[in-house]
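call fold(seq) -> C-alpha cells
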Amino acid sequence: LAVCQCQPAATQLIQHGIFPCAPVWPSLAVSLDMLEFVAELFVHVAPNKRAWAATLEKYLNVCGYQFAAKDSLCCRFTNALSHYQMLVHLVDIEISKIVDLNR
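ret:
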C-alpha cells in the first residue's frame, strides 16, 4: 500500500479485494470472498466467531503465520466481519430505496 494522505489505507485495501478490520490504521485485512463465505456459513450453522477465528489462527500458525497476541485474530476478524455485514446491509437498504423510487 502507498502510505499517503491522498487515499486512506481502507480504501486501498478494498480496491484490492480485502476488507480492513478498522476504518483507520487497520492492522488486519480479510478477503471479501472469505467474509462473504463466513457470513453465509453463519446463516446455516450456529454463529461462533471465536471458534472460527481459533480454527483459522491454528491453521495459519501451521502455515507459518504467527500472531503477536492471543485472540488478536478473533478480535480483528470479528471487527472486519461486523463492519462488512453492516456495510452490505446499508447498501441493500439504499438499493431497495432506489428501486422503490423508480417503480
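Helices lie at 9-15, 32-44, 49-62, 72-101.
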